[in-house]
């Protein structure tokens, strides 16, 4: 018996109904797509056959060499099968993508958080430790910056935290001016 008929205990009746609704949408749209794809394949085959016949007639009049393309029951069957397959696939895929948002809550039911290989668990721990280290470094930089601002040194280490006023710069230039 299929697992679809025996859902896990973690799902409520509403969740089971949601999964069934999405599954039903995918299947019904797949069959609709198969129908419309088959019809489209047959229509395109008929149009191609008619166009080929018209082209053959104009080439005979013009004296060109005709092409050896055959439109028979095999090409009709091929067109119908390809159209049905493409239509079914595209419509079912579109229905699935349009309805997957209903399943997000269902995916979270019964989720195990500690899954993964030993390597993945170690990598997750290392990532978490790196994040914590960055937070500690950020706090230390903030404290260091605050201390330097409170002590009057300023934000820059250049000039030793002492900035010359414009008047002082002008007077120094005049004194050091070459004559």
Report on this model:
The chain is elongated and about 105 Å long. The protein has helices at residues 13-62, 73-99, 104-108, 118-150, 166-175. The termini are far apart. The protein is mainly α. Helix 1 runs antiparallel to helix 2. The chain contains 5 helices and no strands. The model has no long low-confidence stretch (mean pLDDT 84). 70% of the residues lie in helices and 0% in strands.
Helix content: 55-70%
> What is the assembly state of the chains in this entry?
single chain
Low-pLDDT segments, ≥5 res? none
Q: Outline, from the CA principal axes?
A: elongated
Order of helices and strands: HHHHH
- Topology, number of strands: 0
Report strand %: under 5%
Count the DSSP helices.
5
**What number is the mean pLDDT?**
84
Structural class: mainly alpha
Largest sheet: none
State the distance separating the first and last CA atoms: 104 Å
Which radius of gyration do the C-alpha atoms yield? 38 Å
Brief summary:
By secondary structure, the protein is mainly α.
Detail the topology: elements first, then pairings.
Blueprint: H1 13-62, H2 73-99, H3 104-108, H4 118-150, H5 166-175
Helix pairs in contact: 1-2
Write a concise keyword list for the protein shown above.
mainly alpha
